[in-house]
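Record 1 of the preview.
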Amino acid sequence: MNGATGVLEAEYDTITPNGEPTSPPREALNEFIETGAGNVFYNGRLTLDDRNYVFSGENHIAEFTNTSTLERFHVHLRREGNILRLTEDLGEGKEKVYHCAPLN
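->
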């Protein structure tokens, strides 16, 4: 975030429209959401050298909260190959993009 290197840790659950848990592969989560095959619910934390965030969300939208200042912002999450792209809408057609590479 803002050029800082950090560690993003997340857990997620995938649920079909009838409420049944399911396990699509990580690579297929965008399609799982976009086709209406189900919903993805997730939460986690982002640890940077100088600040920490917790987040939760559903499908492609997550809310991040700074654990020190309680500042909040929303991002659009999208998996692009092996990268997780987080896009923050700054208003007036401006956005900030962050990229996260998985460790495993």
